[in-house]
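User: Second chain of the day. Same drill as before.
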Amino acid sequence: MNDPQLTRVVPVEHLTPTTHRRERLVGPDVVRAVALIGVVVMNYHGYLNGSGAVAGPDASFLDRLFDPWTGVLSTRFAATFMLVAGVGISLLTERSRTSGDREAIRDDRWRLVRRGLLLYGGGFLLDWVWPGTILFFYGATFVVAALLFTLRTRWLVVVGATSALAAAAINAWVIDRTLDGRPVDWLTSPGTLTTESPRGLLLDTFVNGTHPLLPWLAFCSAGMVLGRVLPTGRRLATVGIAGAAVTLITYLVNHVVTNGRAGDVAWIEAWSTRPFDRGLLYTLGTLGSSLAAYALVSWLAERSRDHAAVRTLGAAGEMTLTLYLGHVAVYLLLVDVLDVVGRNGLTTALLFALAYWTLALAFAAWWRRFIGMGPAERLYRRLGG
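Assistant: Same format as last time:
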């Protein structure tokens, strides 16, 4: 869950020409923290309320907005988190990639593989108590990124586009087979990660899980491209405006092409913006919103980097693995063990998330100031390199 270090080597003036220091970038850290806040909100609502979190036809605006499966905010925080993971991968591997040093490239490649397998295996175990955890898919993405980070930028774009197109093609194929009366349960319902065969595990990782590589690799690939250029100022504004425009266009296209075809299931799903249909419009729209969010939050963070709120969020962004595992532990303790928090709808979930983050942000700021690296991050770096 913890991204590779979000730092860039920069020259230090008035020292020798070969002297460098590492300057931590506040923007990506704050984006990660904000994205994780959203992940916790959506998780608490979905896990607390289950089918009750699904917004019906008479649901309020907030209920539709926070619907964990079809709402406008569904998966967008997690996708932004994946985007920042790509940024971190590019920054971690920048020195070896730009130098062309084969030994350094090999070291970075194996570092990403070790970290990815650690998250993949840890996510596999966590899935027993927290089904659908993003940790599992996050780790798989790191392993694949170990093979990708040396590619030219244009090929990263091709990989991301191929991932999005493949997911849409699989979705169209599933629709076609199902409508013809030939169900593909072996693909669409392979079982949970912890009880299925190796084939089911593979299908969950790439196709059928909550955050599968098809199309989620598109978000990481875009982040890797973003991490190579790290836009600032006007260029960052351009990224934000372009991302917002892409998202708006996808919703307009969805509205136009599906208008008046309420009974045409195949047509609606093919042009869907809903997360779990994994159509092309969903991937493009979610990528656009992630880019817009990254640009806006980064711009605000860089402009106010000395503000207490930014420093606090930055500290939280440096220890998101700890805070992610913490939100799982707090939920299991207060809901499943002690039965302190009831399953009473969206308001309860929002208040629960607010209470958690009030304490989590204070904890992160204190820990970062007096101890340093987060406890889970320290173990993660020690085991993963």
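The first strand starts at residue 7 and ends at 11.

User: Great, on to the next one.
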